[in-house]
TrEMBL record:
Cofactor (UniProt): K(+); Mg(2+)
GO MF entries: ADP-dependent NAD(P)H-hydrate dehydratase activity; ATP binding; metal ion binding; NAD(P)HX epimerase activity
GO terms (BP aspect): metabolite repair; nicotinamide nucleotide metabolic process
Any one Pfam family match given in the protein's UniProt record, by short name: YjeF_N
Protein name: Bifunctional NAD(P)H-hydrate repair enzyme
Taxonomic classification: Bacteria, Pseudomonadati, Gemmatimonadota, Longimicrobiia, Longimicrobiales
Annotated cofactor note: Binds 1 potassium ion per subunit.
Family named by the database record: In the N-terminal section; belongs to the NnrE/AIBP family. Belongs to the NnrD/CARKD family.
Catalytic activity: (6R)-NADPHX = (6S)-NADPHX; (6S)-NADHX + ADP = AMP + phosphate + NADH + H(+); (6R)-NADHX = (6S)-NADHX; (6S)-NADPHX + ADP = AMP + phosphate + NADPH + H(+)
Amino acid sequence: MSRFSGSTDVPVLTADEMRAWDSSTIRRTGIPERVLMETAARAAASVVDRLYPHGRVAVAVGSGNNGGDALVLARTLAAWGRDVIAVQAGSRMPDEALLHGWRIPVVPAEGAAEAFGGAATIVDGLLGTGATGAPREAYALVIRAMNDSARPVVALDGPSGVDLTTGAAPGEAVRAAVTVTFGAPKRGLLLFPGRGLAGRIVAVEVGFAPREGDAARLITPAWAHQLLPAVPPDAHKGRMGRVVIVAGRAGMAGACVLAGTGALRAGAGMAVLVTPEANRVIVQSALPEALYTDRDTADAMEVQRGAAAVVAGPAMGTDDDSLAFLDAIARGSDVPLLLDADALTLLARDPGLRERMDRPLLLTPHPGEAGRLLSSSIKEITADPFAAAAALAERFRCAVLLKGTPSLVAETGRGTRVNVAGHAGLATGGNGDVLGGVIGALLARGMEPADAAAAGLYFSGRAAELAGRGRGLLPTDVADVLPDALLKVPVPGSSLNLPGILLDLPAAV
Ligand SMILES: NC(=O)C1=CN([C@@H]2O[C@H](COP(=O)(O)OP(=O)(O)OC[C@H]3O[C@@H](n4cnc5c(N)ncnc54)[C@H](OP(=O)(O)O)[C@@H]3O)[C@@H](O)[C@H]2O)[C@@H](O)CC1
Ligand SMILES: Nc1ncnc2c1ncn2[C@@H]1O[C@H](COP(=O)(O)OP(=O)(O)O)[C@@H](O)[C@H]1O
Ligand SMILES: [K+]
């Protein structure tokens, strides 16, 4: 389960943004680079010593500052009484003065396999934010030896060989058990394949100045809970938000039921399900708490009047009738509108729909739907989801939740929000429908579309964590524990029980 500090603000940075933050901290505060390195390496040494307290530690050292971190860590562990050996991968070692006179045995890259074989734990200090392209030969050799050693590897800042901006691994790449990343999680650690190679991700505070600007940020529990409107003790159903859900063509009642369940489990005062007569018996039996309206009567347009938010699209159909109906719904009110699934396919077919409506809008595409909306391929979307989410937000002048691992929320002029709550148990048809309903409920309580989307991702992800990790988790199981996820802010902290941990994310398995 992901664990956070109590911070509402944890940035997610590209390698360039990280370097800019380094240098602006050094420039503005006068703190020497060596002090930042010392703090970073000592924090990483604490993590290594806490998780792997016994046996020899072999430290792989590159020639840049990532290697500098590795030398400081090696010296620190040696001073703490640990048995340490270094493997030199670069043509030169970082400044030996970093060792403060401690004598650490150093072997060349060719001796890596033997050195790792004789160690209990390996530390990867080969490449960090300054790396470009695939690791070159001596580095590649050391990485192969690391991966072949069957020893746990703790990566410093990122697993060497992973592009810390894109998550790509163009050549050999370290498979880490744990990554200790400095100052803020790097974007490439949260994107696959980087996310898979990073193992458990521990982000530690190392003394950077407060960040300015609109970089991407994690959706933290503290942030999501602080957005959540309180339930007043004198609440009544009219004040808790009425969500209209347009979903499920004939024979596809499930999508409608799941979205309605999501809305009610997230605290909507009322859910109105707009779906064809053929689905009536099913939706009213499955979800008697919701109201039903026949999509093919004039009532379907009337129900928008009392609505605080509208969710349209899950399995609603993509034929001409559905397009005409969606068009009427979109123009029929000015309350926030969420478009998902089939409604996104219809929007891709008729982008003019956007110009004909005048209301806060949120799109929640998965990469396939995003590809249709941007006329590009799924491959292009997943290669740079941050760019795709931003392009959609710009193109449709609205908030966008791009589903994926991780799911992102973008809106022009605001920093992208990155979701790390949840797990692969959510990869079951129907979870998107529940999510749409959850966000609908949050919109109906007055949250801005981008905030509702981000909070909806967090609470659904958190519910999946509470529901457990086993296979076969149903969307309704996730929905059932939503009230618990909404009620309790998780206690901050990590099982590492060390100060300064910003984020402790389990390995993606
Ligand atoms: N600055 C700070 O405040 C703080 C920074 N910190 C730490 O510094 C790290 C960034 O350090 P950095 O900028 O020195 O880059 P780094 O990742 O060590 O790589 C550069 C070296 O790798 C080499 N190299 C590059 N590509 C390669 C390839 N494909 N294959 C092989 N070699 C390759 C390149 O060689 P060159 O190309 O120049 O020959 C150069 O020698 C950051 O991740 C964090 O750990 C912390 O201490 C906290 C404070
Ligand atoms: N591996 C995963 N880790 C975290 N969240 C996931 C994972 N797989 C799916 N999800 C989430 O589950 C939801 C599935 O939505 P979607 O693809 O629209 O499914 P459907 O339309 O079939 O209900 C999205 O919010 C997605 O981000
Ligand atoms: K590294």
